[in-house]
Specification:
The complex is a heterodimer of chains A (415) and B (403).
Chain A: E1 2-9, E2 12-20, E3 26-30, E4 32-36, H1 47-51, E5 59-63, H2 64-67, H3 71-77, H4 81-84, E6 91-95, E7 112-117, E8 120-125, H5 126-136, E9 140-142, H6 157-179, E10 188-193, H7 199-211, E11 216-219, H8 226-241, E12 249-251, H9 257-264, E13 270-272, H10 275-281, E14 284-286, H11 296-316, E15 332-334, H12 354-358, H13 361-369, H14 373-399, H15 403-413
Parallel strand pairs in A: 4-5, 4-13, 5-6, 6-9, 9-10, 10-11, 11-12
Antiparallel strand pairs in A: 1-2, 2-3, 7-8, 14-15
Chain B: E1 17-22, E2 29-35, E3 38-42, E4 44-47, H1 59-64, E5 69-73, H2 74-79, H3 83-88, H4 91-96, E6 101-105, H5 108-114, E7 119-120, E8 125-128, E9 135-138, H6 140-150, E10 154-156, H7 169-188, E11 196-201, H8 207-217, E12 224-227, H9 236-249, E13 256-258, H10 264-272, E14 277-280, H11 282-287, E15 291-294, E16 297-300, H12 320-324, H13 327-334, H14 340-365, H15 369-381, H16 389-397
Helix pairs in contact in B: 6-7, 7-8, 8-9, 9-16, 10-14, 10-15, 14-15
Classes of the chains: A alpha/beta (415), B alpha/beta (403).
Protein name (chain B): Queuine tRNA-ribosyltransferase catalytic subunit 1
GO cellular component, one term (chain B): cytosol
Catalytic activity (chain B): guanosine(34) in tRNA + queuine = queuosine(34) in tRNA + guanine
Chain lengths: 415, 403
């Protein structure tokens, strides 16, 4: 696999990762995102409805938390998780955890890391972890790592140091086992940068991990509420500065449009796409604009629309919604609101997704009010398409030196 | 005319059914319904999309499965989102963006089955909305009014529905009232040119009452007849006899719609008895409980025995689920909280029902329906002779022996 950068502007990297996949002929765009899945399937979607979505990323994210407990079945299946889940054509990245449902802290030891499946806790030593990966045969996988230094409110230096030490030890052991495994020769280990909020440890983690023959880097523990992210963004720049330019940088648990842009400016290449899923679960639809070059007439219309929506959203932002603990953002509208009952417009005018091409806000509102399963399906289709469209616009903006405009547009909508 | 491209006549209801083939032994028929939103091959199974959605599958997926008619429920839609909004959305077709045919029932059945405090009078059914507590009267006129707003291709009369386990004078009262309500529905129907109003034969499990109802209702020139009041708690033995009685006395050239029937065996037997159309929530509902329908019965995919079963649900099935996924994967997915699992099974179960009806139809057209029945029962029960007694007797009554 090879990362070729077309340009780097203000810290943002634009390029392609080539020679991916078992046959070595797949490509991925950078900056980009990975398709978020739950137990090997896009949420709410079957291959049919997934194929309705335009610009689905070439690589999907699987989570070990949903698959680890099934490793015996996968081992017996022998043909790898891609085929098992019905996505034989997709590139696959296996993360440890599910960004939407982080697991309880306190279960990492010097010898093992735990994930939580439906059946309970699955404790993985390095050898068990590698055995599971052997059964999965993903294209990329996050190395076993200790991510708990960033969990607590105030990380002690000692805890931060331990997270780096452990993760490096896990990495070295995993690399060793990979060498000995025929089945894992075509899988790429992604090294994990830990160190909590302690600059010294973060730098050590970056430098040491970079010395190992990993295929890329996962920047772990930079998530949090907008406040903590602010402080951590500074750390992030320092970390990416230590990493080689020719290997991709992934970040976990950061998915909001505004935060995505901040991270891209600090040298991050790949993101998870769980944000559209969270939006879906609260009955909302992404409506933020990423059209940084609209024609003047549309700008006027959009401004009027945006103003009204922002005004309304401020009043309702405090509403906690079921299904997801996150609060609604100003990037979306809440289709459960009564005002959409008789609104026969599509979710977003001009959107090319299946939902917007075929259905109205009034219909989605009805589906939500009556608790129908189709609500989730249609919203997920729209929200994924909208989100993947956003990433496409990032790449276009970078190509045309317009990222500042896009950033301003997003910033305005981030309330 | 509520059929495609036929001259209009205000005096008689359109003949919307064209018979293509009839079994020379049994009463089975293959035909074609000509409806405003396109032709429908019969016998047909109509999946139930209660609240303007076929549960978790999109209109496109349903269309791709070959479905050309499905159901919506007047009771539910009448409450949420209400007929006025649906009318604004260009009818139920426009609201849910379904390009093919729709059949709506009258709301009568839900009145009785869902509403604990409903009261039936000659006027109609009085009930309290479970959503806002408001008291409403569903009269024959109101039911037709709502269905006119919904714009479905086939609408059902409001009938006085009584559970099939009820006996005594109530059954007779309901039967006669249903006739009177049929006449009121016919009078209230504003769109006979675009929507086909079906009558519903009642009479419970009483042969005399059924016969009376049949005699009276067939005097009314409606485009089709439904056989109602069955598929409740009655014994199968009584059930089939009422179906057979009804088909014997319903006109040959009009469709016979047996309401609420959806188990595979029941479908095959009732086709033999002369029914053309069926609906049932069973296949879609059972899918959401993790049960996949197969020619030998069903697979409870959540069970441990499917953990390492890498075969598709049915290797003969052409549906997208069976083309891509194994029982083992579906087992895993069903134990997760990803709703996609339910949608996979919904797709498969609808495909199963539609493929079954297709196969039944082909066998009638190709003059081998009795052989089809024997083969079907053999697969389902291990041996044709192991078929349930009621089914054996029902089939025998129309000249099909299973030995």
């Amino acid at each position: 696999m090879k990362l070729s950068l077309t340009k780097v502007v203000n810290g943002c990297r634009l390029g392609k990762i080539k020679n991916l996949g078992k046959t070595g002929d797949r490509t991925m765009d950078v900056p980009g995102c990975l398709l978020y899945t739950k137990t090997g399937s896009a949420p709410h979607l079957t291959p049919h409805t997934l194929h309705n979505i335009h610009k689905v990323p070439a690589m999907a994210q699987l989570t070990l938390s949903s698959l680890a407990e099934h490793h015996e079945v996968l081992a017996e299946y022998k043909e790898g998780v891609g085929k098992f889940i019905g996505m034989p054509e997709s590139l696959l990245y296996c993360s440890l955890h599910d960004p939407v449902s982080p697991c309880p802290a306190g279960y990492v030891t010097n010898k093992s890391v735990s994930v939580w499946g439906v059946g309970g806790r699955v404790e993985m030593t390095v050898s068990k972890f590698m055995a599971i990966q052997q059964a999965l045969q993903p294209d990329w996988f996050q190395c076993l790592s200790d991510g708990e230094a960033s969990c607590a409110e105030a990380t002690s230096i000692k805890r931060a140091r331990k997270s780096v030490d452990r993760s490096l030890l896990f990495l070295d052991n995993c690399l060793r086992l990979q060498e000995e495994s025929e089945a894992l020769q075509r899988s790429t280990i992604i090294g994990v940068i830990e160190g909590g909020d302690v600059m010294e440890e973060r730098l050590r983690s970056a430098r040491e991990t970079a010395k190992r023959p990993v295929g890329g880097f996962l920047l772990d523990g930079f998530q949090g509420d907008p406040m903590t992210l602010e402080t951590r963004l500074h750390l992030l720049s320092s970390v990416t500065a230590e990493l080689p330019e020719d290997k991709p940088r992934l970040i976990c648990s950061v998915s909001r449009p505004d935060e995505v842009l901040e991270c891209i400016e600090r040298g991050v290449d790949l993101f998870e796409s769980f944000f559209p899923y969270q939006v879906t679960e609260r009955g909302c639809a992404l409506t933020f604009s990423f059209d940084y070059q609209p024609n003047p007439e549309e700008t006027l219309l959009q401004q009027n629309g945006t103003q009204e929506e922002i005004k309304y959203v401020h009043q309702t932002k405090k509403i906690k919604t079921t299904g997801c603990n996150q609060e609604m953002t100003s990037f979306e509208i809440n289709l459960k609101e009564k005002k959409y009952q008789g609104d026969f417009e599509p979710l977003v005018r001009g959107c090319s997704c299946y939902c917007c091409q075929n259905h109205t806000r009034a219909y989605i509102h009805h589906l939500l009010v009556t608790n129908e399963l189709l609500a989730g399906v249609l919203l997920m289709m729209h929200n994924f398409e909208h989100y993947f469209g956003f990433f496409h616009s990032i790449r276009e903006a970078l190509k045309n030196d317009r990222l500042a405009q896009l950033k301003e547009l997003i910033r305005r909508q981030a309330s | 005319m509520a059929a495609a491209a036929s001259p209009s006549s205000m005096e008689s209801a359109p003949r919307i059914m064209r018979l293509v083939a009839e079994c020379s032994r049994s009463r089975a028929r293959a035909g074609e319904l000509r409806l405003p939103h396109g032709p429908v091959a019969t016998p047909v199974f109509m999946p139930v999309g209660t609240q303007a959605t076929m549960k978790g599958i999109t209109a496109e997926q349903l269309d791709a499965l070959g479905c050309r008619i499905c159901l919506g429920n007047t009771y539910h839609l009448g409450l949420r989102p209400g007929p006025e909004l649906i009318q604004k959305a260009h009818g139920l077709h426009g609201f849910m963006n379904w390009p093919h045919n729709l059949l709506t029932d009258s709301g009568g059945f839900q009145m009785v089955s869902l509403v604990s405090l409903s009261e039936v009078t000659e006027e109609g059914v009085r009930f309290r909305s479970p959503y806002d507590g408001e008291e409403t009267l569903l009269s024959p006129e109101r039911s037709v009014e709502i269905q006119n707003a919904l714009g479905s291709d086939i609408i059902m009369q409001l009938d006085d529905v009584v559970s099939s386990t009820v006996t005594g004078p109530r059954v007779e009262e309901a039967m006669f009232r249903s006739i009177r309500w049929l006449d009121r529905c016919i009078a209230a129907h504003r769109r006979p040119d675009q929507q086909n109003l079906f009558a519903i034969i009642q009479g419970g499990l009483d042969a005399h009452l059924r016969a009376t109802c049949l005699e009276e209702m067939t005097k009314r020139d409606v485009p089709g007849f439904a056989i109602g009041g069955l598929s409740g708690g009655e014994s199968k033995n009584q059930f089939w006899r009422m179906v057979a009685l009804s088909t014997a006395r319903l006109p040959r050239d009009k469709p016979r719609y047996l309401m609420g029937v959806g188990y595979a065996t029941d479908l095959v037997v009732c086709v033999a008895l002369g029914c053309d159309m069926f609906d049932c929530v069973f296949p879609t509902r059972t899918a959401r409980f993790g049960s996949a329908l197969v020619p030998t019965g069903n697979l409870q995919l959540k069970k441990k025995q499917y953990e390492k079963d890498f075969r598709p649900i049915d290797p003969e099935c052409a549906c997208p689920t069976c083309q891509t996924h194994s029982r083992a994967f579906l087992h895993v997915l069903l134990h997760s909280d990803n709703t996609a699992a339910l949608h996979h099974l919904t797709v498969h179960n609808i495909a199963y029902q539609l493929q079954l009806m297709s196969a039944v139809r082909a066998s009638i057209v190709e003059k081998r329906f009795p052989d089809f029945v024997r083969h079907f029962m053999g697969t389902m029960y291990g041996d044709p002779t192991l078929c349930p007694t009621w089914a054996t007797e029902a089939l025998a009554s129309v000249g099909i022996t299973l030995a």
